[in-house]
């Protein structure tokens, strides 16, 4: 009986060691560190094996895209405010509300197209394999953003 | 020693005296205070089962148990790590896209 207990203890220790080893082998400490710091650029560099030069080019591309992002943001916000105002007005013309909705939707579509073009440009700065993986991860989420707000995003928090 | 000497005496004794010699033959070995302990020790040695002997008695069962336990734990550890990586990746990609997506920023910005 004592040998049974001893053997089971040794088996349990071996199992714990194997589990821990496999966890460490499959883990990505650099990715976890980037996520803990909420550093998206560090994540890009780690997860998509970017060289310093590639990272600098991607940062440059993001900076170049930022003004058009700001502009889209402003236009969508204005269109949303206009639509909300029309919707809140009693006896507002349904044709006007529909036109405002169309304008907002067109802006959102333009915005989505612009983001997709931007991320394709970013993917082009990566190695082909990493670029494909990046697009496979990012493009579906960009499409999802239009139908629902970013999953897990706390909209009560401030931004920028 | 006493036994051996007595046997020599018997062998050199005539048949007529044999029964008399045998009758008077007494073996008186010296007392061994360790005798009882030695006997039990000998019995214990023969019946003792060591851990390797115990394991070797059921090789297939223990080998299978070891392979199953280590494989299951290894798989679980790997799966947990991959799930952790995937969850972190999903979280950071949202953070990343929020910075890029004016549609989200239009909602977030005051």
The termini of chain A sit apart by: 66 Å
Radius of gyration of chain B from the CA trace? 42 Å
Number of alpha- plus pi-helical segments of chain A: 6
Overall shape of chain A: elongated
Largest interface in this structure: A-B, 61 and 45 residues
Give the distance, in angstroms, between the N- and C-terminal Cα atoms of chain B.
113 Å
Query: Can you identify the CATH class of the largest domain in chain A?
Result: Mainly Alpha
The Cα radius of gyration of chain A reads 24 Å
Unreliable sequence segments of chain A: 147-160
Name the features:
heterodimer, A: 160 residues, mainly alpha, Four Helix Bundle (Hemerythrin (Met), subunit A), 2 domains, 6 helices, 0% strand, disordered C terminus, B: 110 residues, 81% helix
Task: Please write out the topology.
The complex is a heterodimer of chains A (160) and B (110).
Chain A: H1 2-26, H2 29-36, H3 40-47, H4 52-88, H5 94-124, H6 128-147
Chain B: H1 2-11, H2 15-24, H3 35-47, H4 51-57, H5 59-100, H6 102-108
Task: Provide an overview of this structure.
- The complex is a heterodimer of chains A (160) and B (110).
- Chain A is mainly alpha-helical.
- Chain A has two domains: 1-37; 39-147, Four Helix Bundle (Hemerythrin (Met), subunit A).
- In chain A, 81% of the residues lie in helices and 0% in strands.
- Chain A contains six helices and no strands.
- Chain B is mainly α and 110 residues long.
- The chains are: A mainly alpha (160), B mainly alpha (110).
- At the A-B interface, α1, α2, α3, α4 and α5 of A face α4, α5 and α6 of B.
């Amino acid at each position: 009986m004592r040998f049974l207990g001893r053997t089971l203890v040794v088996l349990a220790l071996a199992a714990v060691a194997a589990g821990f080893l496999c966890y460490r082998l499959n883990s990505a400490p650099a990715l976890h560190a980037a996520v803990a710091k909420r550093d998206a650029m560090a994540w890009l560099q780690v997860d998509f094996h970017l060289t310093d030069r590639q990272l600098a080019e991607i940062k440059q591309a993001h900076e170049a895209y930022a003004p058009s992002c700001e502009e889209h943001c402003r236009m969508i916000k204005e269109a949303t405010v206009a639509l909300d105002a029309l919707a809140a007005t009693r006896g507002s013309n349904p044709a006007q509300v529909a036109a405002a909705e169309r304008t907002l939707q067109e802006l959102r579509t333009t915005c989505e197209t612009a983001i997709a073009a931007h991320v394709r440009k970013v993917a082009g700065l990566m190695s082909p394999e990493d670029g494909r993986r990046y697009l496979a991860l990012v493009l579906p989420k960009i499409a999802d953003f239009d139908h629902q707000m970013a999953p897990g995003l706390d909209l009560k928090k401030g931004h920028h | 020693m006493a036994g051996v000497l007595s046997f020599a005496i018997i062998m050199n004794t005539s048949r007529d005296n044999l029964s008399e010699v045998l009758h008077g033959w007494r073996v008186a070995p010296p007392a061994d205070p360790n005798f009882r302990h030695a006997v039990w020790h000998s019995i214990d040695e023969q019946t003792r089962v060591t851990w390797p002997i115990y394991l070797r008695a059921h090789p297939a069962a223990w080998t299978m148990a070891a392979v199953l336990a280590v494989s299951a734990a290894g798989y679980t550890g790997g799966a947990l790590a991959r799930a952790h990586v995937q969850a972190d990746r999903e979280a950071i990609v949202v953070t990343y896209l929020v910075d890029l997506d004016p549609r989200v920023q239009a909602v977030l910005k005051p």
